Amino acid sequence: MVVLSYERFLKEKSAILIDVRSPKEFEAEPIPGAVNVPILDNDERAAVGTAYKQVSPEEAKRLGMNYISKKLPEMFEEINNLSKEYKKLVFYCARGGMRSSSVTSLFAALGYKASKLDGGYKSYRQHVAKEIPHLNEGIKYVVLHGRTGIGKTKVLQRLEERGYSVLDLEKFADHKGSFYGALCESREQSQKRFESEVFEHLRTRKYDYFLVESESKRIGNVYVPEPIFQSMTDGYHVLLETSMDHRVEIIMEDYAKAPVDEMLACTTKLRRYLKEEDVVRYEEMLKNKEFALFSRSIMEEYYDPLYQKSINKYDFDDTVYYEDLNTAVEGVINFLTKEDLHRTESEEVAE
What we know:
- The protein is of the alpha/beta class.
- The chain has 16 helices and 11 strands.
- The chain folds into 2 domains: about 1-130, Rhodanese-like domain (Oxidized Rhodanese, domain 1, 3-Layer(aba) Sandwich); about 135-350, Rossmann fold.
């Protein structure tokens, strides 16, 4: 059986990673770019695990083989289609054990160029942890600051669409970084998935700078890797400023689809920090669907005083005042140009 390290896989010109773990495992802990062709679904994996613990390893294997045999025709079609796009099929599971070994052996015997990822997802995680500090070396971070509702994420999105180098930590974290940060997010947070997304972005970057949003070390329930957080602290700092009316518009747009009951649940958490009468007042606004008034009140009375402490920590390299997002984007681009950070390959060759 051919076994590849993850480092070797990255050097292959036409190879695809095929994750044979259950869909639940894959969703929480994927390798970016891999496809999921599970040999057991979530319920089947749970049943096999129960049999292993409560009956015997032999019974678990017997049950697993029964499940797998029924899936083989469907798996064959999926993998056969992938073989038409890629020259090499690289299978992996949690630790490079029985699941990936059996599938690799089967498809190798059928004449496919099949390999197994050495050590499975566990070895990939070790590679990520080792490489993030090295990949981060030499990158300059331009950190966008601004009060709640200022539109930092929207500015980053527009800059990325225009080809500028952006590291959207909140997107990778599946959280917006506040008490209300989990609202309108479709996935549960995962530290491993977060780090994998960050690693992939570092590995495939085109420039030696990143535009990022100002964050604390923790975004919801995930943590920014220490080398990146330190580089953000040591980087350039740009403050965005706009009117309260514009901020309310942005907040209304961001949370337009948030269920009221979930917003109320988030507001309850503020009881540790605010007077009871203030929290009750916010709750009444939400119940009465006075969303604009709620947004303005909570920003003026809670978030702005809180964020001012963060703002006071920095000597900003630039301040961008704007009333529409395009003006904010142009302001950030002007800063990048002034600092000579965004340089195309043709510009570098010309020198």
